[in-house]
Design goal:
This protein has about 90 residues and is mainly alpha-helical. It contains three helices and no strands. The model has no long low-confidence stretch (mean pLDDT about 95).
């Protein structure tokens, strides 16, 4: 355990950041699963599917803006889900 006051504060900050980052990563993973489920659903309209897709992309961008993902990772995630959505929406499964 640190003895110096500033080191104690740094430990507290690191714990808060760790929890926040972990929650955001979990949120993105779960959102990806939900988005894929909506895209694969036959019950949902095309408009609803596009809305879910755009929401996922915007959330990935927000996580990138907070510094949790690097630019290439966020681009890769969005690109892969776009490819998947195009296959599903055009019927080329």
């Amino acid at each position: 355990m640190p003895i110096i006051k500033s080191a104690k504060k740094k430990v507290r900050q690191a714990e808060k950041r760790y929890e926040r980052n972990r929650m955001l990563k979990t949120f993105i993973k779960n959102l990806k699963k939900k988005t894929i489920a909506i895209l694969n659903s036959d019950k949902e309209s095309t408009e609803k599917k596009m809305e879910a897709l755009n929401y996922y992309k915007s959330q990935v961008d927000k996580v990138w803006a907070k510094g949790l993902f690097k630019r290439n990772k966020s681009s890769r995630l969005k690109s892969r889900i776009d490819i998947m959505a195009n296959k599903i929406l055009t019927g080329n499964k």
